[in-house]
Design a protein that fits this description.
The complex is a heterotrimer of chains A (305), B (315) and C (610). Chain A has 17 helices and no strands. Chain A is an all-alpha fold and 305 residues long. Chain A has a single domain, classed as Orthogonal Bundle (MetI-like fold), CATH 1.10.3720. In chain A, helix 3 (70-77) crosses helix 15, helix 13 packs antiparallel against helix 14 (256-264) and helix 13 (236-252) runs antiparallel to helix 15. With 315 residues, chain B is mainly α. Chain B has one domain (75-309): MetI-like (MetI-like fold, Orthogonal Bundle), CATH 1.10.3720. Helix content of chain B is 67%, strand content 0%. Chain B has 15 helices and no strands. Chain C is globular and about 75 Å long. By secondary structure, chain C is of the alpha/beta class. The longest helix of chain C has 24 residues, at 2-25. The model of chain C is unreliable at 20-57 (pLDDT under 50). Classes of the chains: A mainly alpha (305), B mainly alpha (315), C alpha/beta (610). Chains in contact: A-B, A-C, B-C. Chains A and B meet through helix 1, helix 4, helix 5, helix 6 and helix 8 of A and helix 2, helix 5, helix 6, helix 7 and helix 9 of B.
Chain lengths: 305, 315, 610
């Protein structure tokens, strides 16, 4: 694969004064922007590294006041993070690969010019983006299919996605039709065209959707809570969600004493922040991994060249 | 984006159809799997929409429940605060469909203009961090930043812009603005991913040709990059229009106060409290159905408009 | 072009056809086995199953074979192990399972060894009502449900999914009938049948309820001889303290009181505390004739709201009181940014001395704490305030469902839970050398010396309790004060502790009855409001009745109006906002709500009488 850095358009143009001014402004803007984006995350990191009781005094902004790793030690000692992490990773790997494969194939099908079912398939799927039966019928479906308390419930209901299909299809439309035409003339089957010609060209969009799907799987907690009542397949995110919403749930208890008891057991904000870090950092690292596929030039240029 | 589909139309009748199916058998095989799946997981549960026409209670069979026709649909349109709720919903999702929608596009374009690839990737990675911070945490940070002795007020006071602290979160006039800024902040890096990938997909030869034609840097962006990602932008916009009435409720529930209720109450918060929380499924379903129908009609209309104006269509 | 259109139309039609064929085909609900022919609504109050399903005593399922001898724990175990499947509401199942090696294992083993009982308890992470509705829809729920809201218990009864317990309670529930007394009647439906029990019942052991708290050390500085008694005096005192301490150690401006952003609070807690001083119940003034008047329609309400407004205008109420999280509230108390506490008494403990005594270690001064104080309106005697309320039946119910194979067995176990000894064991864990309590040779319930130190409660009492599985399985038992009175017999409890409940206890001097911890005495010495029984005032809203929407609308609207009144810029503006609130709520049907409360009260009184 040839990797021409298209990101810089420099080879094609001479630097101009206005261009330089723009570059400076742009860099400054990006620095401020990056700060705003990073700060809350940084703040959580600071809180997670601060001693729990001291955190109650507030006023933690840029640096921990009473440095400690005890919060991290505590959450790892509690023990169920390891299993949760494993299930989360498994879910991301299985969920992302299956949905990429299936949605990609579906997207291709809906872009083959001349295919009689093309528009039908698009509309059938488009409708699913806006119409749903609601919580109870969906729950009953999972019960009837025997998916309750299984790992399958994480990836099977998300196998085909109308949204991903639309995005991938729109990318495929942007590809030169001549490539597929010539392959067809050479007698290639549709599957071969997809896997040998389309798929390599679609790497950037598949990478983008891969990130979306991976993050989506990693972040989802609702299905974990509803379809896994026994907690056997609890993911990290479900664990985090419970800790984060503890206070709200306690405040909804109607019985004053139960409420007091729940509030007494409340996780400290330092431990919550530490959990946020442990749950978030692994998935953040996924981006740079996919990012290397966002390299231009290798797409069209590579094939034609 | 299909522009036209014009398969060569040969011969007659059954032979034609059979021949065609035979030619397309592998495509139909894939479609069949996808259809079975979608029938089970998406269309199967749609019977739940019928709940909205009955006094449905979980645990009872639908045919044992009283048929009430459009009672719950009427309830929605006859809400005492209906106009206010509708206004808030339209304003908030209007902001989401314009400012919040376009910000990631601009961000992706600006990012593309950075020369240093290390810096570029770092900014890109950082930009999507807020997406991972739970709304619960965001709310608590906002409470700290925007409180009367919070950073923002202290900064403004130190700079002499204001004399006494502003109650940001209790000020109805500021609610939509703060919500929009938060939405941009939370989603910009995330939504930009798809545009960054689309920019990558723009044919490199076009830039070479552009350089030959003497296009400047901004000219390249205007004449090549933007048209290159336009199909994606249009697609996402059309899909987004369908969610016009969906604004979510988490932000409002976490950061709304009694003083901003007049501007934050939207369909979703209302349904959450009066439908979901109270366990009134028919009402929640009826409102959901109304939103779906309107959303779908809007998608079809905007698709028509797009086809007329830009020649692009999602169907 | 035409062709394209035609194609699209066809596709749309096909898609539509697909949708409707599926709609037509599916429709099977999980609830085929539902026996409840009663498809109409369950009515407002506890109207349960239909009369035809009454279970006369003779029709009761016979209990399983037992050992035939009541053991030292007051239970006659079944020969075969009794397994009880329980859904216990919202909770974290994974932590519960992890507890396998901790308190859960201890309690499981004890139950098996001594009672031959195994309890399989599950929780859900999502909302209890939602989970119960899904259970109903899928017809998949265990034999016993507990921590269930009253409306859902009624729903189970109305659909014929709850077992009629009337006969079983009569036959096997002597502890329940004895200890709950007439209150049990309030759980009965219109036909006098019993389909639900209370999960945690009993009068509250709390010493304080709504309070007008203040920093004790700051109050001492004022050198006043007597404690403030009315809300107005409280305001004066706060003002004097703020004048002495305009900023805290961090340099932040100080305030008298604040509130939280919890959906039920947002200023309402402050107002309710104020109204408690006027003797209002749940925000209503109760007339001698049994009429209910909402506070927006009363002069007392106006007085209380205007006082809050005055406090706000003079900087005594934190301007962020509407958007402060519970934790920020605690932080504000801890950092001295807020020096009073108008609302829930224990917030001031959590944010006050409980934090300081740990973080300041030996340097901690016992006077640095919040004092809980009760106030009464000038025209209302302290005896008539409603600051410290207690609902005997609590808010949650226990239901035995139609999935239960032998209700008699379950009832025998529930009856044991409701015995004095059983109650203590499910609450504190089984008595032993290593637990917080033990039973001596004379049969007295002795508490361990470790727990006599209140400041170490978290370390000793609560931790030990958890390790012994205390409060893990409370299906239906007294959550209130385990008091020795006409109904219950707790005279064996160690005289060194008082106000024992499954949650808590307070060490006292056996001679004088005063709290043995000096700090606790300071906190509570000026809380003199008596407990007020609100059981008869409890109201259950059926979500499918229009009145529940009226209630929700009024609740939503009132918080906005209260905020407008409190934050108004002048007394005239506040008064005008109050008038506006009264007018607006009038048009939203507050009269219906007042009538509904009055009816519920009348019905409750009648039911209680039996």
């Amino acid at each position: 694969m040839k990797t021409k850095e298209k990101a810089h358009l420099a080879p094609y143009q001479k630097p101009t004064f206005s261009g330089r001014v723009f570059d400076v402004i742009n860099i400054v803007f990006m620095l401020v922007f990056a700060f705003c984006m990073l700060y809350p995350f940084w703040n959580q990191l600071v809180i997670s590294l601060n001693e729990g009781t001291d955190t109650n005094y507030g006023g933690l902004y840029f640096w921990p006041r009473q440095w400690t790793l005890a919060n991290y030690a505590y959450i790892f000692e509690k023990g169920n993070l390891g299993k949760g992490a494993l299930i989360s990773v498994l879910r991301v790997v299985v969920g992302t690969s299956t949905t990429l494969f299936c949605s990609g194939l579906l997207a291709y099908v809906t872009t083959v010019r001349g295919f009689s079912g093309r528009r039908f398939m698009r509309i059938v799927y488009l409708i699913t983006m806006y119409f749903g039966g609601g919580m109870i019928p969906t729950y009953l479906l999972m019960v009837n299919l025997g998916l309750l308390n299984t790992f399958t419930v994480y990836w099977l209901p998300g196998l085909f996605s109308a949204y991903y299909m639309m995005l991938i299809a729109s990318y495929i439309y942007g590809l030169p039709e001549s490539l597929m035409e010539s392959a067809r003339i050479d007698g290639a089957g549709e599957m071969r065209i997809y896997f040998q010609i389309i798929l390599p060209l679609c790497v950037p969009v598949l990478a983008a959707i891969g990130i979306m799907a991976a993050v989506g799987h990693w972040n989802s907690w609702f299905d974990v809570m509803v379809y896994n009542p026994k907690g056997e397949w609890d993911t990290l995110q479900a664990y985090l969600r419970r800790i984060l919403t503890e206070a709200t749930m306690a405040s909804q208890l109607l019985n004053d004493q139960q409420q007091q008891e729940a509030m007494r057991k409340l996780t400290t904000s330092s431990i919550r922040a530490a959990t946020t870090m442990v749950v978030t950092i692994p998935i953040v690292c996924v981006y740079p991994f996919f990012q290397r596929y966002f390299i231009s030039g290798m797409t069209i240029g590579a094939v034609k060249g | 984006m299909s522009k036209t589909s014009a398969p060569a139309a040969p011969k007659t009748g059954h032979a034609r159809i059979l021949g065609r199916l035979k030619r397309e058998r592998s495509l139909w095989a894939i479609s069949a799997v996808a259809l079975v799946w979608v029938a089970i997981f998406c269309y199967g549960p749609l019977y739940g929409l019928l709940y909205s026409f009955f006094d449905y209670r979980p645990g009872l069979n639908l045919w044992d429940c009283e048929f009430v026709g459009l009672k719950y649909f009427q309830e929605f349109f006859l809400l005492p605060d209906f106009t206010k709720i509708l206004r808030n919903t339209l304003v908030i999702s209007g902001l989401n469909l314009t400012i919040v929608f376009i910000a990631p596009v601009i961000f992706a374009l600006l990012l593309n203009e950075l020369h240093h690839s290390g810096f570029k990737r770092t900014v890109q990675t950082i930009s999507y961090l807020p997406y991972f911070v739970s709304m619960v945490v965001v709310a608590s940070i906002m409470n700290t930043l925007l409180s009367s002795n919070g950073t923002i007020n202290e900064l403004l006071m130190a700079l002499g812009f204001i004399e006494s602290p502003i109650a940001f979160l209790n000020e109805p006039d500021l609610f939509w603005g703060i919500m929009t800024v938060t939405n941009i902040w939370k989603g910009i890096g995330w939504s930009a991913i798809i545009y960054i990938s689309a920019i990558t997909g723009v044919d490199g030869e076009l830039y070479q040709a552009g350089a030959v034609d003497g296009l400047g840097r901004f000219g390249m962006v205007w004449h090549i990059t933007i048209p290159g990602i336009l199909p994606t932008v249009v697609l996402l916009f059309i899909l987004g229009v369908g969610n016009l009435l969906n604004t979510g409720y988490e932000y409002q529930l976490l950061l709304g106060t009694p003083m901003t209720r007049d501007v934050y109450e939207v369909i979703d918060t209302y349904v959450y409290r009066y439908g979901v929380q109270m366990g009134r499924y028919p009402f929640a379903t009826a409102v959901g159905l109304i939103k779906s129908v309107i959303g779908f009609i809007l998608v079809i209309l905007s698709n028509l408009a797009s086809r007329k104006v830009t020649g692009m269509s999602i169907m | 072009m035409k062709k394209t259109h035609w194609h699209r139309l066809l596709s749309l039609l096909l898609a539509g056809a697909l949708t409707f064929s599926l709609v037509a085909c599916s429709g099977g609900e999980g609830g085929e086995e539902s026996t409840g022919g009663d498809t109409t609504t369950s009515g407002t109050e506890s109207t349960g199953g239909e009369g035809g399903e009454e279970t006369p005593a003779s029709d009761l399922v016979a209990p399983s074979e037992t050992v035939g001898e009541v053991n030292e724990w007051g239970y006659d175990p079944t020969v075969e192990t009794l397994e009880i499947d329980v859904y216990a509401g919202i909770g974290d199942q994974s932590t519960f399972e992890l507890d396998e090696e901790g308190g859960k294992a201890v309690m499981d083993q004890w139950l098996l060894d001594n009672l031959n009982v195994v309890i399989n308890q599950t929780y859900s992470s999502n909302d209890t009502t939602e989970q119960l509705n899904m259970m109903l829809a899928s017809n998949d729920y265990p034999a016993v449900l507990t921590n269930v809201p009253d409306t859902m218990a009624n729903t189970f009864a109305a659909q014929g999914r709850a077992i009629n317990l009337t006969g079983y309670v009569e036959e096997y529930g002597d502890n329940i009938t004895r200890r709950m007394g007439d209150y049990l009647n309030m759980l009965r439906d219109a036909d006098g049948q019993l389909y639900k029990l209370a999960t945690l019942w009993g009068s509250t052991p709390n010493v304080a309820g709504y309070d007008f708290g203040i920093r004790y050390d700051y109050w001492l500085e004022l050198g006043e001889d007597e404690i403030y008694e009315t809300p107005e005096e409280y305001y004066e005192t706060l003002k004097a303290v703020i004048a002495n301490h305009p900023t805290n150690d961090n340099g932040d401006k100080t305030y008298g009181v604040t509130g939280t952003n919890a959906s039920g609070d947002q200023g309402m807690t402050m107002m309710n505390a104020m109204l408690g001083a006027y003797g209002f119940v749940s925000g209503y003034k109760v007339g001698d004739d049994g009429s209910f008047t909402h506070w927006v329609n009363t002069e007392e309400g106006r007085e209380a709201a205007l006082l809050l407004n005055k406090m706000y205008r003079e900087g005594l109420i934190d301007p962020d009181y509407l958007n402060t999280t519970y934790e920020d509230y605690i932080t504000k108390l801890t950092t001295g940014q807020v020096i009073g506490n108008l609302g829930t008494w224990w917030y001031a403990w959590t944010g006050g001395h409980e934090t300081w005594s740990v973080s300041e270690g030996d340097a901690y001064d016992i006077n640095k704490r919040f004092m809980n104080v009760s106030c009464h309106a000038p025209d209302v005697a302290m005896e008539d305030t409603t600051l410290l309320t207690s609902n005997f039946l609590g808010s949650y119910r226990c239901v035995v469902t139609d999935k239960c194979e032998n209700p008699a067995d379950i009832m025998r176990y529930l009856n044991w839970e409701n015995s004095e000894l059983g109650n203590m064991i499910v609450g504190w864990g089984a008595p032993s050398e290593t637990n917080n309590w033990n039973i001596d040779a004379d049969g007295n319930w002795i508490v361990s010396d470790d727990i006599m130190n209140v400041s170490q409660k978290n370390l000793y009492y609560h931790l030990t309790k958890e390790q012994n599985g205390g409060m893990l399985y409370v299906l239906s038992a007294a959550g209130g004060w385990l008091k020795d009175d006409d109904l219950s017999d707790f005279d064996k409890i160690d005289p060194r502790v008082d106000r024992v409940s499954i949650y808590d206890y307070w060490p006292v001097d056996p001679e004088t009855g005063a709290f043995s911890d000096e700090g606790v005495n300071i906190c509570w010495m000026n809380y003199t409001a008596p407990a007020f029984d609100t059981t008869l005032y409890s109201v259950t809203f059926d979500p499918n009745e229009p009145i529940s929407q009226t209630n929700q609308t009024v609740t939503d609207t009132i918080s906005t109006y209260l905020a407008n009144i409190v934050t108004a810029s002048s007394e005239e503006a506040a008064s005008a906002a109050f008038d506006e609130a009264a007018a607006s709520l009038g048009s939203l049907g507050i009269a219906d709500l007042e009538a509904f409360y009055a009816e519920s009260y009348a019905a409750n009184s009648e039911q209680m009488a039996g």
